[in-house]
């Protein structure tokens, strides 16, 4: 079987992201179904949360800026370079990623005496493992994107299947064998070390070991606005939580937190498509083909994800009491509002802007988006409670994406129909909004359907 005919680079990266998500989901399920105490589950989840919190924004910014420069930069004459040629860009991107990881590691180790997480502090293994995990895991993100720019779709899938199968085994095994939770954390560090070794092999095969301060400067010049943008976007959920806690009691905060979640499948596949296309857009003379690809792939995602979202929206009020308990049925209303974020999520004006290296536009848009989100959340929480905060988030996402579409049209002279399947998008967006209104007004209801079948 020819893998490249079956799976494109875009499809392979999306499947890789799904494998990654499924692995962590299975681990979470294994934790809840095992004899591990709630305290230990909290320790494991805190470990993952803090590791992500310390690095998600700069990893995102560095990777996206690397993808814009991989095929088009001032530092190296790489235009029309064959895929098989070793790339100095890959090595220098590794240097930047490792430098950031090492900085976080050094700061963490240096100040661990004053850090306390659930009464774990100082020289205890938990914190040491956390910072070693950050050091080893973040540079390894470069593996799948090196395969991407080298047009190795089969390698992306093979790497994902092997590495996450091993991760599942070495993390879940201590859990099901009732070992202390620290052994599951050792497993995470161990797989991170294996991935780092894999990364070194990838660098040996595909990277030219040529350090360029000029490229690193160019990389950071494009990457810093994206880092700031990612930090602002990531902080929005924490600000929403703060708005709820200031306006309402802790019970309402719990209801909000359990509902304030996007449909993971939408987020994973949309981010996978966006990242895969950034390097395509950045390649000189490739704009028309790139826009066609974005339109084609986004249409395909719409045909899959909109029906899935509509089904999930229909059963949400039944699903939440089943998965959690009846006290969290109001979380379903928040969740349904977050499901509307699919409307802007499957449009990709930002992919084009990042691919063309206009990252400051993204940063400015993120600042404006955050400011509007704060003001609108404060206003709507007073009128609609927790649902109002979710409504503010959905509105701001739609306004932000619309603004970027207008920017592309006015400044870049790119008509929306060039990269947006207008008819498909309009049909599904209107249908989803109509379903939301009908469910909200109780005109259609999952419980009526259940009673009918009875």
Description:
The protein is mainly alpha-helical and 454 residues long. The chain has 2 domains: 1-211, no CATH class; 234-454, no CATH class. It has helices at residues 3-6, 9-33, 38-53, 56-69, 88-110, 125-137, 142-149, 153-176, 182-206, 213-247, 250-259, 264-282, 287-323, 331-339, 342-345, 349-355, 359-384, 386-410, 422-440, 446-453; strands spanning 116-117, 120-121. The radius of gyration is 23 Å and the shape is globular.
TL;DR of this structure?
The chain is mainly alpha-helical.
Strand order of the largest sheet: 1-2
Average pLDDT score? 86
Helices and strands, in order, run as HHHHHEEHHHHHHHHHHHHHHH
Overall domain count: 2
The biggest beta sheet reads: 2 strands, antiparallel
Task: Indicate the low-confidence ranges by residue numbers.
Answer: none
Overall shape: globular
The share of residues in extended strands comes to under 5%
In angstroms, what separates the terminal alpha carbons?
48 Å
Query: Measured on Cα atoms, how large is the radius of gyration?
Result: 23 Å
Structural category is mainly alpha
Share of helix, binned: over 70%
Query: In DSSP terms, counting alpha (H) and pi (I) runs of 4 or more, how many helices?
Result: 20
The total count of strands amounts to: 2
